[in-house]
TrEMBL record, chain A:
Designated name of the protein: Geranylgeranyl transferase type-2 subunit alpha
SUPFAM superfamilies: L domain-like (SSF52058), Protein prenylyltransferase (SSF48439)
EC number(s) from the headed UniProt entry: 2.5.1.60
GO BP term, pick one: prenylation
Known role: Catalyzes the transfer of a geranyl-geranyl moiety from geranyl-geranyl pyrophosphate to cysteines occuring in specific C-terminal amino acid sequences.
Alphabetic keyword roster: Prenyltransferase, Repeat, Transferase
Record-level Gene Ontology MF annotations: Rab geranylgeranyltransferase activity
Lineage: Eukaryota, Metazoa, Ecdysozoa, Arthropoda, Hexapoda
Cellular component annotations (GO), alphabetically ordered: Rab-protein geranylgeranyltransferase complex
InterPro entries per UniProt: Leu-rich_rpt, LRR_dom_sf, Prenyl_trans_a
PROSITE patterns named in the record: LRR (PS51450), PFTA (PS51147)
TrEMBL record, chain B:
Chain positions covered by the region annotation Disordered: 119-173, 503-527, 588-635
Role according to the record: Substrate-binding subunit (component A) of the Rab geranylgeranyltransferase (GGTase) complex. Binds unprenylated Rab proteins and presents the substrate peptide to the catalytic component B. The component A is thought to be regenerated by transferring its prenylated Rab back to the donor membrane.
Protein family: Belongs to the Rab GDI family.
GO cellular component, one term: Rab-protein geranylgeranyltransferase complex
Entry's localization field: Cytoplasm, Cytosol
Natural source organism: Gryllus longicercus
Bias type Basic and acidic residues, positions: 146-166, 626-635
Keyword check for Magnesium: no
UniProt record, GO biological process: intracellular protein transport; small GTPase-mediated signal transduction; vesicle-mediated transport
Protein name: Rab proteins geranylgeranyltransferase component A
Keyword terms of this UniProt record: Cytoplasm, GTPase activation
Compositional bias segments (type: Acidic residues): 598-609
């Protein structure tokens, strides 16, 4: 056995490791026990610090131990001189560093470090900043470090310019960095705001950033971090909140906004005026969420039909007591109802300058598409650009590209289907006659045969009395969207993929619901019909549940107004 | 006079070159009794790295005529044995040319200079004085008087204030003299055979798998340059480079990335290269409609090929480059700290740890062959008769009879100590430049520039290595490239050189300082054209290239010859050769299995206790930090 060095066998090594681990567990458990005892006895001393430090080095993710530690430190704050207290806190820093070495994504350790610095009499922000930079060299994508860095930067009052340079550096070493791109989107608007308020940032910088993103997307079209940033850059200009529809009758009063909002939390309020008199009452979100497009008015005293005959009706929208929009209502006939409506607006409202930038972008990405015909991000970006530039010009192209996306990225075909459905509905709403949607006529709105997989913008149909959504691909998940159809009396959902009515909102105007040729199999799946108490006819032929002998009895139990001959 | 060595071995290895050292380590590692000799007083033979003083001694030896052959004392041979005298035919270095370009001593006053006698140049023409230099080539720099003239003749603008400032900084550069440089001799590590390691090349993998990596330290090469349109340009080779560079347009970026990824894909899986089997790589690149500068990057800098390289060969070379990207740094290459000569020594160290016996300054004077001439019995070393089952020897020591086919080629080498980088940047760079064949006829030249952070030279200086296939003499072969990159005229340090380089405006794209200065997106793109480095000292030499020789034909069956340095960038050839030799000697044994770490070694009296292992933990960590580290952790 000349020259052979005797080495420990793996089994031997494992045994040694096992024993070591056992010993560690024992020590650990004893430490925890001791620590808790001391805390229970309000015994805040150096030993607590020592024990907790050892425990945290072994496992930095026990919140309780960190909390005990902070308790002790705060106790010492009153006991020690300022110098000694500073020293004590400075010793916390190496501890957190050690913990972060064990787990660079330990929420507790990062949090403790920022607490220490905020508690410290004389914090050294420069040193912290340097430390962050070092960490980000080791792992440029650790969002904990980025988060902590932003905290340091705020405290140290580092100029945004410096931070912008830093972000650029990080992106040039590895542009696959969500944190750094995101950081730019936070820095740029404050550094280079657009004086015209038409773009997210000043024109020259905007062009620079778009070109930077282009460099990234052309280098690696499969890296989504750059595409995400690009979406921010191309994001449509901020759309202001508008009051788009309103309806007043003795039984039902509601207002419709162009965005789904939560009135109370955003300092928004609605007010109904009849003959210039404000009507007392409260506004409730329609549907089951706290925010909504459609807000229902619950008056303190019922609105009398007599009040609808005289004078003007008006709904106003206020933000922090300042009126931001208003809608005048037309009175249909004495004592019946009143309504008002504005035309929906789906075109992106960009300035001429920005539109030309988008057109240049579109050209470039067509070029990229020639090189990479199967790049999904390129295709999707082209779709978004076309929609932003001219929705009507690019209608066919948009639909064709979405079809292509469904094929090459079949895992997300549902997403693309929904996107297509949204565009289809937008085109449909655009094409309605000028006043087609603005009064509760008995004309049927026929959103039928579009293969819609999801429903969007239904709040623009809130005044409609007959809505036909047949021959689509709608599933149960679309049902909550129907909440906006507050005036709807006849709703046709034939030839869809509904399996149940779970999620059916309360529709008080609804009299007739047609569900022919869906996939509803059991009576139990119909129980949510109870939400629409005024239904007098339900059509269920073409569903397995229609064969159920007890169906009629069951439905009558649910819906008192149901007419026998109308259950088919 | 000589130490008495044990007289019986499993393997005697003669020469401490790369292949020899790997074989020695591998044999020792599996428990074989190894004797490793080298007649020199240093390790590595033609693979060695020297400090400045050591290199001077080496040159002196090279200049001496071959020692008169000592007659081998035939009486030492036992009955039935023949003695064959060891040779030195393939270790001969030729065309050695050393030159200084600075004063022996810095004079106190500008007068009283030019006292040095070795500084006489051969009256080389300076490119600046040649009318033939085309406007785009603008690589001329010269002394003050000439430059003024050039500036007037050429259409270049007055240097702006930035440039002027830059020049004034340059003027404050340290003034080096020969004596001053010699005084710093310890700070040099100059390689006879400079080699880079591909980050996923066979040597790096071997260093890791055998655990020899802990004996070595590396730095990653920071940039790959190329010579294009008459100037140096960083080659975008990594994803980050491609993203940042402003030398290629956005669509070109996609083309480049696309080409590189199609080269990386498995050949069987795609029909990408169908029909190009017999065509050249250039033809394939042309079929991809690459723009001319992309073609240049891929062909010369990434594939490191020439116009004659066959398609699949080019693809393989590209793959080799790309596969090594992203492991340790921004480029695919590692450079050994303290020079390439460290690497054979790492293997020697492992050999010694496992009981190999070392003796430098001890030659194998003769090889003992059995009566039939079929088997080697051992060697005569000094007065000793040493027996061995296998003999491994560097080709330099091989008796002429063993190698009847003389090596066909040689290497042309140039080493230059300069005062600045060939392409200055903010941080010290470690540069690889594959200089494309000039005017088609010449060979491509491998240029490696290293600075003081690799311990190649004192701070403020750079060492430039040039290597190419020998055609005439090293000086002649490298002359053109030297003139393009370096200022090779005598300088007494009193006249400041003024930059006359005219920035090339031929390229359509904005000239970029991007690679060095990624945040410089808002810079005007105008970089003061750099002054060529002043050469302080240079050395040219030729040595034989023996990797193509057939070593098996004329040797006894248990004698294995090892090649000297080859032309390739990496040590791959040596690793392959060593493995082959080892497998022939010990077909059943594993080649360099992982060597245990210190804490895995059971010392006397600590059997079974965990304490000892714990104590050694610190030591282990210290060791581990020296080895190549895995690339940064990903999220």
């Amino acid at each position: 056995m000349h020259g052979r060095v005797k080495t420990r066998s793996t089994a031997e090594q494992q045994e040694v490791k096992r024993k070591e681990r056992e010993k560690k567990v024992k020590l650990y458990k004893a430490g925890v026990e001791k620590l808790f005892q001391k805390r229970d006895g309000n015994c805040f001393d150096n030993e607590v610090l020592e024990i907790s430090a050892q425990l945290l080095c072994a496992n930095p993710d026990i919140y309780t131990v960190w909390n005990i530690r902070r308790q002790v430190i705060l106790y010492f704050k009153t006991e020690k001189s300022s110098e000694d207290f500073q020293l004590l806190l400075e010793n916390e820093l190496p501890l957190t560093e050690q913990c972060l070495r064990a787990n660079p994504k330990s929420y507790c350790a990062w949090h403790h470090r920022s607490w220490v610095l905020d508690t410290m009499p004389v914090p050294n922000w420069k040193r912290e900043l340097a430390l962050c930079n070092k960490y980000l060299e080791l792992d440029e994508r650790n969002f904990h470090t980025w988060d902590y860095r932003r905290y340091i930067v705020t405290r140290a009052q580092v100029p945004a310019e410096d931070e912008f340079i830093f972000s650029t550096q990080k992106i040039s070493t590895n542009f696959s960095n969500y944190s750094s791109w995101h950081y730019r989107s936070r820095l740029l608007p404050s550094l280079f705001p657009d004086p015209l308020n038409k773009r997210p940032i000043r024109e020259d910088k905007h062009k620079e950033e778009l070109s930077l993103v282009q460099n990234a997307t052309f280098t690696d079209p499969n890296d989504q971090s750059a595409w995400f940033y690009q979406r921010w850059l191309l994001g449509r200009a901020h759309q202001s909140l508008l009051l788009v529809q309103a309806f007043v009758s003795e039984q039902l009063t509601f207002a419709v906004l162009n965005k789904s909002v939560r009135l109370d939390k955003s300092n928004l309020s609605l007010q109904l005026f009849i003959s210039n008199n404000p009507i007392k009452g409260s506004w409730k979100p329609c549907g089951c969420n706290v925010d909504s497009h459609v807000w229902i008015f619950v008056p303190e005293n019922q609105i009398s039909s007599g009040s609808l005959t005289s004078g003007s009706l008006e709904v106003t929208l206020h933000h922090q007591n300042k009126q931001i929009d208003q809608l005048n209502l037309h009175i249909k006939g004495p004592g019946v109802e009143a309504w008002g409506s504005k035309k929906p607006q789906f075109d992106a409202q960009f300035s001429q300058g920005l539109t030309s930038v988008l057109e240049t972008e579109l050209d470039s990405y067509h070029q990229l598409l020639d090189l990479e015909p199967d790049s999904k991000w390129t295709l999707l970006t082209i779709v978004l650009l076309m929609q932003a530039i001219d929705r009507h010009l690019y209608k066919d192209d948009t639909m064709q590209k979405i079809g292509q996306l469904k094929k090459i990225d079949s895992l997300r075909s549902g997403y693309y289907e929904d996107l297509r459905s949204r565009y289809e509905i937008e085109y449909f709403l655009d094409n309605q006659e000028k006043d087609g949607l603005s009064h509760p006529a008995c004309v049927e709105v026929k959103l039928s045969g579009y293969n819609l997989s999801a429903l969007y913008h239904l709040h623009y149909l809130s005044l409609m009395q007959q809505v036909n959504l047949s021959c689509n691909q709608l599933t149960d998940r679309s049902l909550p969207q129907l909440h906006a159809l507050q005036c709807c009396q006849v709703l046709i959902l034939d030839e869809n993929l509904l399996e149940s009515l779970n999620g059916m909102p309360s529709l008080t105007s609804l009299l007739s619901l047609s569900l022919k040729n869906n996939r509803i199999s059991t009576k139990d799946n119909l129980k949510h019909l109870v939400m629409c108490q005024n239904l007098n006819s339900v059509h269920l032929s073409g569903n397995t549940v229609a064969n159920d002998a007890d169906l009629e009895v069951y439905l009558k139990g649910l819906l008192p107004k149901l007419k026998t001959e109308e259950v088919i | 006079m000589e130490d008495d060595l044990p007289t019986e071995y499993d393997v005697i290895v003669v020469g401490t070159g790369m292949t020899e050292s790997i074989v020695a380590a591998a044999a020792s590692r599996i428990g074989k009794k190894v004797l490793h000799l080298d007649s020199n007083e240093y390790y590595g033979g033609l693979w060695a790295s020297f400090n400045f003083d050591g290199l001077q001694k080496w040159m002196e030896e090279c200049r001496q005529p071959n020692k008169p052959s000592e007659t081998v004392d035939a009486s030492k041979a036992k009955e039935g044995e023949k003695l064959v005298k060891a040779g030195n035919q393939f270790s001969t270095v030729s065309n050695l040319e050393e030159k200084w370009y600075i004063l022996e001593e810095v004079a106190d006053s500008p007068e009283g200079q030019l006292s040095s006698k070795i500084t006489q140049t051969e009256g080389e023409e300076h490119p600046a004085s040649k009318a033939a230099v085309g406007p785009g080539e603008g690589a001329a720099s010269s002394l003050g008087g000439e430059s003024e003239k050039l500036e007037k003749e050429g259409n270049c603008e007055k240097p702006d204030s930035d440039e002027a400032k830059d020049n004034s900084v340059l003027n404050q550069r340290e003034n080096w003299s020969q004596n001053k440089l010699k005084k710093e001799y310890r700070k040099f590590n100059l390689d006879l055979a400079p080699k880079l390691l591909f980050a996923r090349g066979s040597l790096v993998e071997l260093l890791i798998s055998s655990n020899i990596a802990r004996y070595a330290e590396f730095r990653s090469v920071t940039r790959v340059l190329t010579w294009i349109n008459g100037r140096l340009e960083p080659v975008p080779c990594s994803r980050a480079d491609v993203f940042s560079t402003q030398n290629v347009s956005v669509p070109e970026k996609r083309m480049l990335m696309k080409l590189l990824s199609s080269c990386l894909e498995n050949e069987d899986a795609n029909k990408e290269f169908e029909g190009f089997e017999d065509k050249t790589f250039v033809e394939y690149l042309k079929s991809k409609k690459l723009t001319s500068n992309l073609m240049h990057y891929v062909l010369y800098a990434i594939a490191m090929a020439t116009e004659n390289t066959l398609c699949m060969d080019g693809v393989n070379r590209t793959q080799r480059f790309l596969n090594s990207l992203g492991r340790y740094g921004n480029t695919p290459f590692l450079w050994p700290m303290y020079g390439s000569g460290e690497i054979p020594q790492c293997f020697c160290r492992l050999c010694a740890v496992f009981g190999g016996l070392y003796h430098l300054k001890r030659a194998a004077d003769a090889i003992i062959i059995d009566a039939n001439g079929e088997k080697c019995i051992g060697i005569m070393s000094g007065q000793q008769h040493l027996e061995t089952a296998n003999l491994v020897m560097g080709v330099g020591y091989a008796p002429p009879d063993f190698v009847k086919t003389a090596p066909s080629g040689g290497l042309s080498r140039g080493i230059f100590v300069t005062d600045r980088s060939i392409l200055p940047s903010d941080k010290e760079s470690l540069t690889l430049l594959q200089f494309p064949p000039l005017d088609g006829a010449r060979e491509p030249v491998t240029v490696i520039e290293v600075g003081h952070t690799t311990n190649a030279c004192p701070k403020g200086l750079y060492v430039v290595h040039m290597t190419c296939k020998q055609q005439t003499t090293a000086h002649e072969d490298l002359k053109a490239v030297v003139e393009h990159l370096l200022h090779v005229e005598f300088s007494d340090g009193t006249v400041a050189r003024i930059d006359t380089d005219i920035k090339s405006t031929q390229t359509a794209h904005q000239e970029g300082s991007s690679a060095e200065n990624p945040e410089g997106a808002d810079a005007s793109g105008e970089r003061p054209a750099a002054l060529k480095p002043q050469v302080l000292w240079s050395l040219f030499f030729n040595c034989p290239e023996t990797s193509q020789c057939d070593f098996s034909a004329d040797v006894p069956s248990n004698v294995f010859l090892c090649s000297g340095p080859d032309l390739d960038l990496d040590f791959e050839f040596s690793v392959k050769q060593a493995k082959e030799i080892f497998t022939k000697m010990y077909p059943e044994s594993e080649f360099l299995p992982r060597a245990p770490d210190p804490e895995e070694i059971v010392l006397e009296g600590e059997e079974g206790s965990g304490e000892g292992a714990e104590q050694k933990e610190g030591e282990e960590q210290g060791d581990a930090q020296e080895g190549p580290k895995e690339a940064q952790s990903e999220e």
